[in-house]
Structures are given as C-alpha cells and as structure tokens.
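Training component of the fellowship. As part of building independent skills, the fellow (R.M.) carried out the full modelling exercise for a liganded target. The chosen ligand was flavin-adenine dinucleotide. The inputs are recorded below so that the supervisory panel can assess the work.
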Amino acid sequence: MIYDALVIGGGPAGATVAWLLARSGWSVVLLEKTVFPRRKVCGEFLSATSLPLLRMLGVEKMFLDMAGPPVQHVGLYAGARILSAPMPVATETGAWGRALGREHLDCMLLNGARQAGVEVMQPCVASKLAIDHGIQVCTVQQPGKDRGFEVQARVTVAAHGSWGKGRLPTHIPGRKPEPSDLLAFKGNFMRTALPASLMPLLAFPGGYGGMVHTDHGRVSLSCCIRRDVLQQCRRGPEPHRAAAKAVLAHIMAHCYGVQSALDGAHAEGAWLSAGPIQPGIRALHKDGIFAVGNTAGEAHPVVAEGISMAMQGAWLLADLLITGRNEIRRGNTRATGSAYARAWRRHFAPRLRSAALFAQLAMAPAATRILLPLFQYIPGLLAGCTRLSGKTTAVIPVSA
Ligand SMILES: Cc1cc2nc3c(=O)[nH]c(=O)nc-3n(C[C@H](O)[C@H](O)[C@H](O)COP(=O)(O)OP(=O)(O)OC[C@H]3O[C@@H](n4cnc5c(N)ncnc54)[C@H](O)[C@@H]3O)c2cc1C
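Fellow's submitted model of the complex:
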C-alpha cells in the first residue's frame, strides 16, 4: 500500500499533523519509536494560542480538565529577586495557557490521531528514507526484531524532534561536544510553595529554566545549563553527585525564589536529562519531505513555546498539504514546500530570534544585574517579552 503521508514521530508535531490529515481523508501512517505514556524533558506549559486547535480536534475540555491551573502571571527569579507581572491573555481566545505532563498530552494527541484513522506503528523506528520513482520508501525497525520492513508514502512528514541521531536526511549531523552546549534537565515536585498561577523564568549563571504547576498537583522544574558550568558544579564539595542534584544545587544557590518555592517540597519521579538542545531553523522541505516541530526549528526553551510551535506548525503544514493535494498526487511537492517554508519562517523565525536573545541575557550574570532593576520598575517589560515570544498570537486564526 502507498499511504498519502508517512509521519515520523508521535510527539505533539507528528500526532497533530497526522490527525489533521486523517480527518481530511488522507491515509496516514505514523511511526513512533517509544512506548507511550512516557515522560519527557519539557516544562509542559502549553500557550493559550493552541487552545483553538485543541477545540477543533475535540479535546480542549479533556486538556483543561487534566491540566494545571491557568498561568496568569509571568515571573523572574534571579539572585535574591522575585518579580512577577500579569501574563497577557492570548489575543483571540482571551484565555491563559496551562501545563500538562507530556505523558498525558502526547497520549491524548496520539490517541486522537489513531481514532481519526491514522495507522500508528509503535514502537517502530524509522531508520532510513529513500525515494523510488517519486515514492518515499522508509525502512522501519521494530525493537527485538532482526529484520526491518518498508513503508511507502507520497510525502513524508519528519516530526522526530531534534535530539535523535541516525541516517534520516532530516537528522542533524553529529558534532563534537562543546563547552557551550546546553544540556536539559527536568524534575517534578509535590507540595511546593510556588504560587498556583505563576510561571517564573529562572535566570542563573550559565543557564536558565522555568517552573510551573502542571497536572495532579505537581510542579515541573525544567532547565538548560551549559556543559562547562555543569562540569564545574560537579567538581564542588561532592564531586560524584548526580548531575541533576548538582544542577538543582546550582539553581538554588542562584535563585532565592526556587529555594523558597521548594522549601518543604519533595521530588516525584526520577529526574530526566537530554540534549544538547539544538536551537535554530533547519531545512523545512526537500524532495517531498516536510519538517515540522523541533525537526523544522527549535526555539530556546526559555520561552516555553516549543509545544505550541510544534502544534501550530503542524496545523500550518496540514492546511497547505490538504490544499495542495492534487499537485502532490501528481508528484509535485515543490510549490507546497515553498509555501510552507515561507509561512513557517514568517510566523516562527522572529520567535526563535527573541528566544535566543532572552536565553543569552538570562545566562549572563552581568546582563541580569543590569536588566533586573529595569524589570522591577517597569513590570510591563516582562509582559512585553512574553508577547515577543509568541504567547498571545495564534498562527492560524480561530475563524480558519
Ligand atoms: C528544558 C526544556 C523545557 C521545555 N519547556 C517547554 C514548555 O514549557 N513549553 C513548551 O511549549 N515547550 C517546551 N519545551 C520544548 C518542547 O519540549 C519541544 O519543542 C517539543 O517537544 C517539540 O515537539 P515535537 O513533536 O517537534 O518533538 P518531540 O516532542 O521531541 O517528539 C518527537 C517524537 O519522535 C519520536 N522519534 C524520534 N526519532 C524517531 C524515529 N527515528 N522513528 C520514530 N519515532 C521517532 C520520539 O520518540 C518522540 O516521541 C522545552 C524543552 C526543553 C528542552
């Protein structure tokens, strides 16, 4: 069988694009290498700009019932300072974003896709992709089986994120470790003193992070830290302490707000780590392969916008693929690819640039020393930064 679309990866980007295509009558196969539910290194905050998409897919209520409280304030914890300002509401929904554990969100989206008719193959790894007479041919490996099998489709949507290594044309080539690499960590806590409606940005030397109330009374603490700074932290008084423990000690030593929020709290579940993260924009379309989510481009997670960008980018792509279906069936993907690349850059490139700037400022003690008094006396600045990160403007308007 030749499917209309092959989707590689069942995270928010892959599940959303597969679901949207299937509900428009496309035959879609999706490969996901892990077994769900699974936790993931992620702050888990979803901007309100993605609520209309969840509504359209019929899962907004499920999301709101499961997710943590509305995030009505944005904050900044740096040194001894604890700043907060009202979070601007999303222009079209008048709502606030919320956080939901990835073990729930990703299952919700993938189950929805499955029910809409997507053939989900899981756990299955896409290990190789070739083109034969204009048809995408993907080699698939199943854990524990020696022999792979092939799946064929007219187009491929690469939604495998940015951390995997392998031989797909959309994999980011490996490189030598650099001191400036940003390694990512995430832990969950219960019984914290973090105000329920607040999502503070944590700024500390060599890194940044965030905290937010997520589902079931949990708080997620996620962060990125430079490789060289992590190494220094681990050389301290207890050189063999686990990396996550060293990272948390470093954050607590430089963010009084985290210290007080975690006073009396206890960790729930193991710490997770990943990375290095790979911020930047990559090839968005080539030879019938469309990249979406982190495979297309990754913003520094300082802005907590990656899930939203993944889902809204998926919506954008699905819309263009559906419009260009007749051309695609004739084997011409170039026009759709160019339109997608243009639209993706227009919507998301400015967010990536502002995220990169915020990340550099948050990680540099000299910059935070200069900027903190400004944020303290002009609270509108924090809200302004939130707007620049894309938290208030949907990519596809609600009426679409
Ligand atoms: C520290 C940190 C905090 C963050 N906090 C937030 C936040 O609060 N809010 C927010 O919006 N964003 C946040 N992000 C970003 C967000 O996690 C990502 O942008 C988002 O997960 C991207 O979704 P995706 O679907 O593109 O990729 P992913 O979520 O990475 O999904 C890719 C999927 O593809 C599968 N896969 C990979 N390779 C293959 C293969 N070869 N074959 C089959 N399947 C494969 C993987 O198993 C995975 O399930 C954070 C990121 C970090 C690092």
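The panel noted the following from the submitted structure. The chain is about 35% helix and 25% strand. The mean pLDDT is 92.
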